[in-house]
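User: My instructor asked us to take a sequence, write out its structure as tokens, and then describe one feature of it. I'm not sure where to start. Here is the sequence I was given:
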Amino acid sequence: MTTIPNEPTAIIRTERGLTIAGTRITIYDIMDYVTAQYPPKFIRGLFDLTDEQINGALAYIEANRDTVESEYQMVLKEAEELRLYYEEKNRDLIAKIAAQPPRPGTEAVWEKLRAAKAKREAKE
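Assistant: Let's start with the prediction itself. The structure tokens for your sequence are:
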């Protein structure tokens, strides 16, 4: 178990990795938003954390930046490998589903989605 000095246990190591005590939220979940520079108040609300929990998590990240960053990079790499694996494994199924015509009555919704996608791609 990992603790922050002079504070109650805020971060523990579980089979999922570094986790906020009393939750299933990992430090790596928080790191996604920290690296994107989201404000702590937003992150706290997103994960429904208390001020104590988010402050403990952010303090732990700052105090152990090298270790957390190293583990976070490994988590990102593993997630990308899994994404690629399942993308390849399900390629035929995805193509089959994409080739199916839309269900009756959903044509207008699909047209709206196509228009939004075309608009977004035009901006890029």
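For the description part of your assignment, you could build on this observation: The chain has six helices and two strands. Try explaining in your own words what that tells you about the chain.
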